[in-house]
User: Which sequence fits this backbone?
């Protein structure tokens, strides 16, 4: 593949802007119930210790990347710590033992975001309206975005451009400006403002609820649940108001009409004239009348320090604005003002009263701030120090300002409050942190509160700490003055007796900014590698960060596993590991197993060309082929566990065996009773199989389907031929089974009457008294014609059907839905067009199909498909309940096979949608002969990560991190023929794979690397800034 200009190999990670708003849900959606993250396998009956109120989304921008996150909280119910799938940091605070950021949607734009703001729908927690996002781009372009439930992503509601010949007068002859466009929004959501070209201010008037707008040539009704949209805009020329040098502006609280406060200078000064002219800044408050387009001055303040650079609006009940200067902080409102000097460099005006001085010296130039409550703000200074500013007040009038030290954190570029218990520290120089805070009116009784706040995840091994939490925080943990994030400074005023505790809950890794970089060979490089495998021999070492966040980043474009051992193995076609949970009694070792995931594998099954090998996976791998009852006379098609891991099922070309450990308990043969011995054997020869306890789905060579149904009470299976598929005219090219487990199976939400479904999960009690939850089982079939159908098992009633699945649509919708997604015309064209280039659609077939939902309450299923040309399709499921079913459906083809319109009832998954996920990866080969076909293997825990491995000519890891697919190729060994997981004494959470060069390798994921990034990265924190470095060769 060639690129005309360049290819972006690693996207920006340094966060420049962040904001919080109700993007995906309105505040009213949280009013009825605040859903915590609970255990997967039991329902919570314990009440929450604290209601945290509505938690808004987090929106961040890094270069040209925009991401929207949801904050998922983990409440402490005494059991969650044992059942959580991910290690969490920070201990228990206010009834929470953890919180994490989960991706909702992310986009790569065609320009860098210069400024960002949330256009709020108001501060009413009962409001059903959602917030919108306003982005500013160079030179003077504004875009307003809202969340669309139908497409499960952001869509543009309006675009505003003040460039070109018609707007040339705004530049006043200038072509370059010291900074880009700045956008701010009214706290009540009535309007927004943008400062373009340094001086003109654009006012964006927001449309009111119950108003009709024309969007996309169609009238749009802004109901109570719609997002905030822009109705119109006009320009205020600040030069006409005698404002020449604007530094910042903001909208303040507490007025009937929007009021904007502008920080500007009438006559700028510079360092050589400081002694003569030093108080040159002014703030002016303008009341914005958008109906009359008038903006009278209502109050102002003069003689502010020349180094004033930022305004911070004070929340309601107090109101006003804070003016942030390098050496002082000033509070101003329409009636009251007060100040606080921060150091000895503050210069006071002549003949002015003395102002209070802080108890310690600090500089606040290049600082960022947000509010923890209506009267307490947190500042992050240029050295990464957290400060708490308290507005001492009597309920409305501010009497004085108190500043106290907290602890140190990362060097921040942006900061925002998320709800009432979290704030986010965005950083371009280090890892960004999600911090939980708690406020108390008295000191904690524990004398060791500081130490407890500083010790994050004490019981977690250090490699997991390095991977799961910010290493910037780890650096701070090692210092007594760093990120304990705790303040106990007493104060004499009663209103200031608030004590805050902080703990880091999550972090987003950052590898920038890069001062220098070099590349060289890895330690375990293969000198004989050629082609793509040779690329994996090199790694990139970068000077990253700044100051105390300085680090060396070791980055690798592909994963090179840590090799434990390897043996030569010729002719391998597939490998599987299986468990064996004995029903004849529990040994002492089994009693020590507290989790199902901690159980070791019992056997390794290796399928060769003409035989099958069986090995025990105890302390050492030992071959037991001759002493077990497995089918070893030929190759194995599939193997796995049934009946709660009490049995092993082995599928081979003409039959299946059920084994209790090494002893066979049942054997089935396919086609032995057929009377026509001269008929083709394709209908009795197994091509592939999918196992989902207690079912086994088998696809024959001729494209027919058979289902093996298990009986948990007797641990036996029987053959079942679905009647609806017996007379099918179209053969199946790929099939799979999907298990929807948990106390609240996810797919049940896709139907409005899911309680009538025949696939309700049942708790199975076997004859040995063991308890097993089989969950809801579904069968996915993809036909030669390209149609995808989902059936309920075992009734085989079609619940979801999509035509032209192999064409790679952007969205998948059930054919029975009368109203499809209301997509823009461009997206509709992409949804209907083939993504397979010039390849005819009839030649494209699905050869591999997998659907899986990993652990977690808020996790949604993924759907993966591999086409015969190597293209991989990845989809993420979501729910959307259509309001009006009046529109026409998309390209509805005549129903075939099991799709019967008469059976189209509400039991179908009408609310189920799939969104295609871009992966920037292809498994196709350059040559026409692809060789080893790609095969998908699901893993739930390899080195602490979950996802899937794609074997074949271009092997790759697809890891699920924060509900996002992270694709990391594995190029070191070339093509991979087979892959499986392995967990035993000598290989903890490892894996086995077989290369096409006939080598079987037992490996683990390299420790210390973070795979939640574009490339696997390992950060080595040095706590100072690099200027240059050189890599010396050992040769």
Assistant:
């Amino acid at each position: 593949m060639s690129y005309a200009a360049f290819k972006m190999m690693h996207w920006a990670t340094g966060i420049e802007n962040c904001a919080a708003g109700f993007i995906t849900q309105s505040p009213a959606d949280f009013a009825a119930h605040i859903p915590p993250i609970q255990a997967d396998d039991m329902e919570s009956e314990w009440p929450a210790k604290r209601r945290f109120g509505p938690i808004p989304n987090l929106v961040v921008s890094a270069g040209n990347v925009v991401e929207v996150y949801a904050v998922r909280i983990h409440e402490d119910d005494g059991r969650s710590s044992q059942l959580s799938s991910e290690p969490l940091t920070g201990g228990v605070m206010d009834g929470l033992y953890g919180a994490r950021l989960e991706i909702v949607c992310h986009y790569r734009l065609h320009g860098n975001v210069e400024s960002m703001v949330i256009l709020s729908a108001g501060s009413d927690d009962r409001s059903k309206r959602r917030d919108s996002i306003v982005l500013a781009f160079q030179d003077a372009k504004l875009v307003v975005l809202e969340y669309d439930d139908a497409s499960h992503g952001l869509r543009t509601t309006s675009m505003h451009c003040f460039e070109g010949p018609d707007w040339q007068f705004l530049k006043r002859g200038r072509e370059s400006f010291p900074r880009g466009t700045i956008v701010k929004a009214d706290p009540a959501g009535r309007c927004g403002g943008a400062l373009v070209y340094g001086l003109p201010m654009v006012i964006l008037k927001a449309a009111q609820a119950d108003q009709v707008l024309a969007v996309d040539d169609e009238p749009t009704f802004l109901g109570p649940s719609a997002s905030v949209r822009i109705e119109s805009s006009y320009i205020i020329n600040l030069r006409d108001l005698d404002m020449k040098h604007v530094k910042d502006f903001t909208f303040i609280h507490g007025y009937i009409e929007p009021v904007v406060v502008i920080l500007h200078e009438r006559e700028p000064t510079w360092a050589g004239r400081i002694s003569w002219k030093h108080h040159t800044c002014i703030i002016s408050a303008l009341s914005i009348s958008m109906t009359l387009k008038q903006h009278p001055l209502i109050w102002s303040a003069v003689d502010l320090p020349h180094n004033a650079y930022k305004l911070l609006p004070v929340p309601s009940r107090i109101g006003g604005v804070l003016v942030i200067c390098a050496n002082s902080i000033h509070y101003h409102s329409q009636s009251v003002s007060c100040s606080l000097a921060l150091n000895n460099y503050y210069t006071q005006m002549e003949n002015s009263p003395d102002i209070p001085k802080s108890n310690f010296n600090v500089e606040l130039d290049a600082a960022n701030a947000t509010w923890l409550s209506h009267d307490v703000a947190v500042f992050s200074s240029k050295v990464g120090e957290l400060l708490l500013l308290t507005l001492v007040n009597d309920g409305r009038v501010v009497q004085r300002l108190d500043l106290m030290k907290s602890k140190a954190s990362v060097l921040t570029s942006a900061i925002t409050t998320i709800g009432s218990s979290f704030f986010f520290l965005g950083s371009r120089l280090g890892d960004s942190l999600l911090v939980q805070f708690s406020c108390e009116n008295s000191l904690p009784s524990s004398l060791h509160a500081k130490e407890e706040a500083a010790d994050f995840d004490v019981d977690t091994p250090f490699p997991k700490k390095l991977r799961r939490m910010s290493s910037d925080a780890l650096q701070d943990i090692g210092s007594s003055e760093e990120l304990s994030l705790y303040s106990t400074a007493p104060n004499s005023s009663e209103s200031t007796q608030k004590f805050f505790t902080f703990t880091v809950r999550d972090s987003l890794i950052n590898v920038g900014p890069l001062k220098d970089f070099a590349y060289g060979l890895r330690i375990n490089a293969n000198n004989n590698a050629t082609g793509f495998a040779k690329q994996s021999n090199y790694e990139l070492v970068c000077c990253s960060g700044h100051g105390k966040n300085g680090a060396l980043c070791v980055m690798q474009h592909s994963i090179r596993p840590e090799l434990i051992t390897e043996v030569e193995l010729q002719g391998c076609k597939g490998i599987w590991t299986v468990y064996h949970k004995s029903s004849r009694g529990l040994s002492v070792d089994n009693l020590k197993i507290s989790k199902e995931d901690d159980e070791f594998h019992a056997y390794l099954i290796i399928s060769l060309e003409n035989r099958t090998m069986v090995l025990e996976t105890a302390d050492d791998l030992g071959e037991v082929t001759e002493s077990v009852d497995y089918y070893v006379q030929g190759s194995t098609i599939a193997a796995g566990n049934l009946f709660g891991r009490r049995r092993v099922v082995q599928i081979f070309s003409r039959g299946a065996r059920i084994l209790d450990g090494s002893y066979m308990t049942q054997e089935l043969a396919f086609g032995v009773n057929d009377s026509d011995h001269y008929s083709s054997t394709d209908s009795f020869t197994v091509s592939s199989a999918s196992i989902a306890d207690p079912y086994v789905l088998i696809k024959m060579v001729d494209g027919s389907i058979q289902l093996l149904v298990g009986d948990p009470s007797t641990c036996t299976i029987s053959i079942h031929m679905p009647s609806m598929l017996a007379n099918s005219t179209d053969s199946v090219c790929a099939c799979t089974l999907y298990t929807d487990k948990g106390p609240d199976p996810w797919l049940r939400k896709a139907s409005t009457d899911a309680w009538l479904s025949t696939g309700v999960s049942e708790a199975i009690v076997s004859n040995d008294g063991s308890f097993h939850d089989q969950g809801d089982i579904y069968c996915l079939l993809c036909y030669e014609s390209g149609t995808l159908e989902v059936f309920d098992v075992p009734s085989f009633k079609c619940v979801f059907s999509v035509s032209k699945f192999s064409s790679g649509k952007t969205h998948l919708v059930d054919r029975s839905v009368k109203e499809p997604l209301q997509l823009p015309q461009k997206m509709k064209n992409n949804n209907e067009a083939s993504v397979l280039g010039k390849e005819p659609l009839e030649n494209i077939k699905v050869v591999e199909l997998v659907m899986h939902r990993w652990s977690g309450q808020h996790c949604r299923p993924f759907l993966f498909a591999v086409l015969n040309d190597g293209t991989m399709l990845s989809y993420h499921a979501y729910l959307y309940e259509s309001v009006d079913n009046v529109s026409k459906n998309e390209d509805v083809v005549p129903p075939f096979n099991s799709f019967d319109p008469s059976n189209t009832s509400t039991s179908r998954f009408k609310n189920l949608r799939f969104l295609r996920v871009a992966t920037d990866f292809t498994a196709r080969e350059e040559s026409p002969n692809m060789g080893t076909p790609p095969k998908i293997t699901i893993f739930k825990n390899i080195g602490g990560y979950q996802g899937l491995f794609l074997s074949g000519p271009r092997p790759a890891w697809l890891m699920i991190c924060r509900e996002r697919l992270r694709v990391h190729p594995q190029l070191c060994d070339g093509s991979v023929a087979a892959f499986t997981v392995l967990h035993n004494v000598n290989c903890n959470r490892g894996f086995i794979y077989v290369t096409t060069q006939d080598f079987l390798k037992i490996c683990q994921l390299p420790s210390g690397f973070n795979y939640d990034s574009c490339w696997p990265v390992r950060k080595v924190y040095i706590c100072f800034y690099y200027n240059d470095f050189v890599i010396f060769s050992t040769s």
Observations:
- Residues 729-755+773-818+843-883+905-918 form one domain.
